Amino acid sequence: MKSKSLLIIASLLVGGNAISQTKKIDKMKQEQNDNYTFKLSEKVSRQKVTFKNRYGITLTGDLYLPKNTGSKPLAAIAISGPFGAVKEQSSGLYANTMAERGFVTLAFDPSYTGESGGEPRNLASPEINTEDFSAAVDYLGLQSFVDRNRIGIIGICGFGGMALNAAAVDKRIKAIATTSMYDMTRVMSKGYNDSMSLEERTKMLEGLSQQRWKDAKEGTPAIGPRNLPEKLQGNEPQFVVDYFNYYRTARGFHPNSVNSNGSWLLTNPLSFMNMPLLTYIKEISGRPILLIAGENAHSRYFTEDIYKMAEEPKELIIIPNAVHVDLYDKVNIIPFDKLGSFFTKNLQ
Questions:
Q1: 317 - beta bridge partners?
Q2: Mean per-residue pLDDT of the chain
Q3: What confidence tier does 141 reach under pLDDT thresholds 50, 70, 90?
Q4: What is the number of alpha carbons within 13 Å of residue 218 lying toward its C-beta?
Q5: d(CA 341, CA 335)
Q6: pLDDT band at 262 (very low <50, low <70, confident <90, very high)
Q7: Is the Cβ–Cβ distance between 122 and 267 less than 8 Å?
């Protein structure tokens, strides 16, 4: 179990060397709509927007507006994730689909990734990425066509944990949904299913600490080993196959995505190792939480544990036969009708 734990951490969290996308993928993506992995709804308009977070980092997002809604201010939803993805992938699909249901939606690239600002590139932070959600709420609440008292958020994969953390501290957020949630601080600091021993954690931190000397000497941060192979060899764990089939094929590939075409910095886990994201999950109390996970998802335990920890009102939905990545883009499996009714009810 420990070796499986370390394999998952290496493949999902550390990242890998930046490589050029294959010609085959490049050709497939050129045939898609401006590198978006989904088709824009005829019922929705999309425009690129920018806004700053509290740290002065300029974030870039896509604003989705339902057409023919009249002049009355609308409820709005900010969306981000999965961890290592960009707005042209899963979060954009969610935003497009929720805008069809009458919401103003904003899918955004987190700090240090995609088209958003922040140096060095391909870095993640539990604090800054939590702040990114609140910055998106700032932006939405300043728009004349948005009712600032009716704003919710959706977090996908690792940004499910960021979304819940943001909602705990930001009382403007009125409703929260997560799909295929990951608690990135838990898995980085404790391993998959909390299987990392103290000795393993200490060894990992010693290595990362020594890497700081090397980065300081070189003047640039080092990148880690690849998280997904160039080609499948046939002996990979199923979760690796699932990620490959999304990020490394035309289904979900995007050149700006860390998981598709880049790498996390080698020292990326450092800020996650001693900063538990969900310490104050109970302080969402009184605001509704909808937690969605696949029955066969390797990440299911994160969602179920958060459901036990959270206060009411809360709801847990387990999608039969679904794996983690199914909730990224399989529109026949993602419960969009449920998401629509959840936010319609709770953003009144």
A1: 292
A2: 92
A3: very high
A4: 10
A5: 10
A6: confident
A7: no
Q: Which residue has the tokens 């740290």?
A: 55
pLDDT, tens digit (0-9, with 9 covering 90-100), for 275-302 = 999 999 999 999 999 999 999 999 999 9
CATH of 33-196+266-346, one of 3.40.50.2000, 3.40.50.800, 3.30.70.1130, 3.40.50.1820: 3.40.50.1820
Rounded to an integer, what distance in angstroms lies between the CA atom of residue 250 and that of residue 319? 25
Q: pTM of the predicted model, to two decimals?
A: 0.92
The dihedral sign for the CA sequence 226, 230, 235, 238 = positive
Between CA 273 and CA 283, with CA 277 as vertex, the angle to 5 degrees is 155
CB atoms within 10 A of CB 217: 8
Question: Can you say whether residue 111 is alpha, beta or left, with left for phi > 0 and alpha for psi between -120 and 50 degrees?
Answer: beta
Mean pLDDT along residues 184-204: 97
